[in-house]
Amino acid sequence: MNEAIRPGPESPPQGQQMGSRSPELSVVVPTFNERANVTVLYRRLEATLAGIAWEVVFVDDNSPDGTWDVVRALARRDSRVRCIRRIGRRGLSGACIEGILASSAPYAAVIDADLQHDETQLPRMLSLLMSGQAELVVGSRYIEGYKSEGFNNQRAGASALATEVAKQVLRVEIADPMSGFFMIRRDRFEELAPKLSVHGFKILLDVVASAHGTLRAVEVPYTFGARQHGESKLDSMVALDFIGLVLAKLTNDIVSLRFILFAMVGGIGLVVHLSTLFLALELFNVPFAEAQAAGALVAMTSNFILNNFLTYRDQRLKGFAIVRGLIAFYIVCSVGLLANVGVAFSVYDQEPIWWLAGLAGALMGVVWNYAMSGLFVWRKK
Predict the structure, then answer these.
(1) Rounded to 5 degrees, what angle do the CA atoms 152, 118, 182 make?
(2) 3-state SS record for the chain
(3) How, if at all, do strands 107-110 and 182-185 pair?
(4) Tens digit of pLDDT per residue, the chain (381 long)?
(5) Residue 381 CB burial class (10 angstroms; 0-12, 13-18, ≥19)
(6) Which residues pair with 107 in a beta bridge?
């Protein structure tokens, strides 16, 4: 038996021995198409965390490349490796939340699988938490000692802008609230978990903003490495996602991030509607009724596409489901338009202020569309 768990390239060292001890540290790794990286990261953690009772929880969003299968192969050889395979939902924040809540250690770290974060800082971060100096330790890109090997100027500029917005608007005091590399006391995370959004990518910003300054935080510099394999968790919609999170936190989470994103998409749809109406009237001399109908149709279609790729990205429709969903969305929005007009007229009868009536109608319309879309278009599987 001892021979089977002896260190070596085919048998991970201490897997069974460390499994008999309660882990001190859980490392949570959200993954999507990281098949080529997970074994490398596992080996790095194994070397870095020697002497520490640890576990690693890979949370995979059903990667098409079978990342989860590689993780399970590792788990069969080492009991410190665990795999959560998520079906029908996606998103880095949700993956991190599920991973931390499923962990068993008093301290939890979040690190990307793309090998860009510096895992050698984990023992130092753990020491800061265990000593009581901090409840949250952040791998920071904006303090002395940080080095970058894989952060291009465009990403760096966008990150710096988002960081400044978060610090000014949400009064976040840490230097790098946009970091994806951090470690936290699990009991403190569990206190904050009910306030966190499972949508989006900026889990640390959500944690810090939700804590309202009650988390004792320390930041440590690290070397940001070059991406080796896999794909970025970020996409072209991340800016809207970030704005939505900021707005949600400004309302103290009274309004959900998903609703704010849905409303923002609706605002874009209004611009699309008016633009289509203008083009139909001015360039093609289409009668107003037909032009208005065309504007509504184009706006509803654009809203559906944006909501499918942004607001409901974790329940994204594919294949024939897109056609079914689009038809259902047309029906929902048509009824929403009637609700919009009905409420607007009712308010105007009581108080003949055009902008108040229009605002009330628009709010009714977006609430109706949001509620019914969740029930009939992007239904939970």
Answers:
(1) 95
(2) CCCCCCCCCCCCCCHHHHHCCCCCEEEEEEECCCHHHHHHHHHHHHHHCCCCCEEEEEEECCCCCCHHHHHHHHHHHCCCEEEEECCCCCCHHHHHHHHHHHCCCCEEEECCCCCCCCHHHHHHHHHHHHCCCCCEEEEECCCCCCEECCCCHHHHHHHHHHHHHHHHHCCCCCCCCCCCCEEEEHHHHHHHHHHCCCCCCCHHHHHHHHHCCCCCEEEEECEECCCCCCCCCCCCCHHHHHHHHHHHHHCCCCCCHHHHHHHHHHHHHHHHHHHHHHHHHHCCCCCHHHHHHHHHHHHHHHHHHHHHHHHCHHHCCCCHHHHHHHHHHHHHHHHHHHHHHHHHHHHHHHCCCHHHHHHHHHHHHHHHHHHHHHHHCCCCC
(3) antiparallel
(4) 333 333 333 333 444 444 457 999 999 999 999 999 999 999 999 999 999 999 999 999 999 999 999 999 999 999 999 999 998 788 899 999 999 999 989 999 999 999 989 999 999 999 999 999 999 999 998 777 666 655 555 566 666 777 777 777 788 888 888 889 999 999 999 999 999 988 877 899 999 999 988 999 999 998 876 555 544 544 445 666 788 888 888 887 788 888 988 998 999 999 998 899 899 988 989 888 888 889 989 999 999 999 998 889 888 899 999 999 999 999 999 998 888 878 888 888 887 787 787 778 888 889 999 999 999 999 876
(5) exposed
(6) 25, 185
